[in-house]
Amino acid sequence: MLIVNDIINKLPYTDPFLFVDEIDMVSDNAIEGRYTFKKDEFFYKGHFKEQPVTPGVILTECCAQIGLVCLGIHLLNSEEVGSRDFQVALSSSDMHFLLPVFPLETVIVKANKLYFRFNKLKCEVKMYNQETQLVCKGVLSGMIRNNNI
Amino acid sequence: MESDQHFEQLKDIVKMYLPDDVSVDAIVVDSNFVKELNINSANLVDIVLDVEDAFGIRLENEDMDKMQTVQDALNIIAQKLQLKK
């Protein structure tokens, strides 16, 4: 069993494209994590002119990093002991956006596994703001596999 | 023949995952899913999951590794159905 912080350390992302601060819960079927958007994230400069709003693609990315990649790392490590090196790719996203997310807001992502078979992970994801309002939801899928097989 | 029927069933599944630039007529017994039909690995998993539901069988990782052409898929389907009997 992987310690939760180890999951974040194994993520293949770094600043300015790491959108996971904490994993609050992980199991073989679900994960919950959070991220606080910094005041000066690189995309706020252009989205929009003098009116920073977090782009939907970034919300999707945040959902995917928590719901697919973090959960995928957990699942790969439950299946195979000692795996270190892995590859990820997003294969489909079907997202709906309900509320805007501004700088300095914290979002909570909750994902439920629909299936993880033949290295494809498909999840239902929901993102909430600090007021526990639903910000966006959808279904994401991606491929995640160990390099050493 | 049973295998013709399997082919038609499989073709109906595969055609849902074909990219726009590949015609349904391109699905023949010898077609390679990835190289000829341009199906990506994520969609190949979808095809396998649909095949499992359609035929009431379950494929393992080894079967997935072997499944490169339509014929490979038909062989796996026939083999799994035989085991069920």
Automatic annotation (TrEMBL), chain A:
Ribonucleoprotein recorded as keyword: no
Record GO terms (molecular function): lyase activity
InterPro entries from the UniProt entry: FabA_FabZ, HotDog_dom_sf
Keywords in alphabetical order: Lyase
Domain of life: Bacteria
PANTHER family for this protein: 3-HYDROXYACYL-[ACYL-CARRIER-PROTEIN] DEHYDRATASE
Protein name stated in the entry: 3-hydroxyacyl-[acyl-carrier-protein] dehydratase
Organism annotation: Arenibacter troitsensis
UniProtKB/TrEMBL annotation, chain B:
Subcellular location: Cytoplasm
Keywords attached to this entry: Cytoplasm, Fatty acid biosynthesis, Fatty acid metabolism, Lipid biosynthesis, Lipid metabolism, Phosphopantetheine, Phosphoprotein
Record-linked InterPro entries: ACP, ACP-like_sf, PP-bd_ACP
Keyword Phosphoprotein: yes
Modifications after synthesis and translation: 4'-phosphopantetheine is transferred from CoA to a specific serine of apo-ACP by AcpS. This modification is essential for activity because fatty acids are bound in thioester linkage to the sulfhydryl of the prosthetic group.
Pathway(s) this gene product operates in, as recorded in its UniProt entry: Lipid metabolism; fatty acid biosynthesis
Residue numbers of O-(pantetheine 4'-phosphoryl)serine PTMs: 41
Listed Pfam families: PP-binding
Domain Carrier residues, every copy: 4-81
Primary location: cytoplasm
Alphabetized GO MF terms: acyl carrier activity
Cellular component, GO, one term: cytoplasm
SUPFAM superfamilies: ACP-like (SSF47336)
Highest taxon of source: Bacteria
Function: Carrier of the growing fatty acid chain in fatty acid biosynthesis.
Membership in a protein family: Belongs to the acyl carrier protein (ACP) family.
Name recorded for this polypeptide: Acyl carrier protein
UniProt organism field: Arenibacter troitsensis
Gene: acpP
